[in-house]
Specification:
Keywords: Cell membrane, Membrane, Transmembrane, Transmembrane helix. The protein is mainly α. About 75% of the residues lie in helices and about 0% in strands.
Length: about 210
């Protein structure tokens, strides 16, 4: 598995570094000072990635490519979710942010870890392109004769590990800017930018691009 692991790590590493919806959500959440929630988003996204990879290795996500109805149902669920999330960000209102260290657990941090985890997980699971990616990319990296499910989970774990490493960089970078982003006007601007980006991803998914 050494050769396939290295090759797969390179492919998904490049994918991880490519800016996308996951990057926007992590940066926005961490930059607003919601560090606990940002980590919830990170682990939610990676839980979704592990779910898609495991399902692909087990052959479940073949349904997305074999059944047009299954793919379209999941795609439009994802579109609705992204549009709803984008509109909420555009309409968000912010009061001056309290210091996180002076806030009780779960307060002043955007809803806490679990709220972030749910958002990250749903954002990932409602994107059928992630499932299609694994259906197309995972099988060629599994050596002949290797246990399909175990090898698939191992390869997916490499993707998850790289995602966690890159997310650590993103959260740390955004956290250094937190002091400059505590003003409500700046926080609203960040929400507007991220909200428009999320709406753009939703529109792109709706158009099937």
């Amino acid at each position: 598995m050494t050769g396939p692991l290295a090759s797969f790590a390179l492919v998904v590493g490049l994918l991880t570094l490519t800016p996308g919806l996951d990057t926007a959500l992590i940066l926005r959440t961490a930059a607003l000072g919601h560090r606990r929630r940002a980590w919830g988003v990170v682990f939610g996204i990676q839980a979704g990635t592990l779910s898609w990879g495991t399902a692909s290795a087990a052959g479940l996500t073949v349904l997305l490519t074999a059944s047009r109805l299954a793919y379209e149902t999941l795609r439009w669920a994802g579109v609705c979710y992204l549009l709803w999330m984008g509109v909420r960000m555009l309409r968000a209102r912010h009061a001056p942010a309290p210091e996180e260290s002076q806030s009780p657990a779960g307060a002043g941090n955007g809803g806490g870890w679990w709220a972030g985890w749910r958002r990250g997980l749903l954002t990932n699971l409602l994107n059928p392109k992630v499932g299609v990616f694994y259906v197309a990319v995972l099988p060629p990296f599994i050596p002949a004769g290797a246990p399909h499910l175990a090898a698939g989970v191992l390869l997916t774990s490499v993707h998850v590990a790289e995602g966690l490493l890159w997310s650590t960089v993103l959260v740390a970078f955004a956290h250094t800017l937190r002091g400059r982003l505590r003003r409500p006007s700046v926080r609203r601007l960040l929400d507007r930018i991220t909200g428009l980006a999320v709406l753009g991803f939703g529109a792109k998914l709706a158009l099937g691009e």
